What we know:
Blueprint: H1 17-33, H2 35-42, E1 49-53, H3 59-67, E2 72-77, E3 89-93, E4 107-111, H4 119-128, E5 134-140, H5 144-152, H6 159-170, H7 177-182, E6 189-196, E7 200-207
Helix pairs in contact: 5-6
Amino acid sequence: MRKLTPELLDHLPHDDPGALRSRADLRRINFFMGNERWIASAIPENTRHITEIGAGEGHLLSRLAGKFPQAEITAYDLAPRPAHLPPSVKWLQGDLFSHAPPADGGTLIANLFLHHFTDPQLAELGAWMRGFHTLLINEPQRARLPVLLGKLATPFIHPITRHDMRVSIEAGFAPGELAETLGLTPHGFHVTETTDWRGAIRLVCQRCD
């Protein structure tokens, strides 16, 4: 069963020294897990609109802006717009549910973001997502091996990261849970789910119509 506990990083000022160190840890963890490489490779070549929810520091979108220059890119996050972000990226700050999704759909990215939501919120988010053509979702897998890998990383990461990594895994998903909770299949999506030994559970959801 999922266990949702507040993550320390979510409640620190954006420029807090511990938060800055923890975000640097998260970039290294993302690289080790291959999350951004998987997302970049899974985006359809002809996509005209890319949207990321929970865009964080915007590093993934900066990379995608170079790879997909023809695509309009939109980001949603509680944090302010990062200074390094290309001007072409549209940044919407605030609660995700207070904003409408882009009217023209396209590809939606959620990378290590959905585990912050309760099951009722995920059901609401599934409805918010239905206008997109492709959904690429990467989340923590709730399993023993990711817990072990997290413990092995303990000497090399900040205490904030150490706490939040455990919390993230406990709030993560077992196979089949996320697709069912989002409720996408009954609304015209074909869902392909895979797992990675490093602790990721990944969904590629494509509209059938």
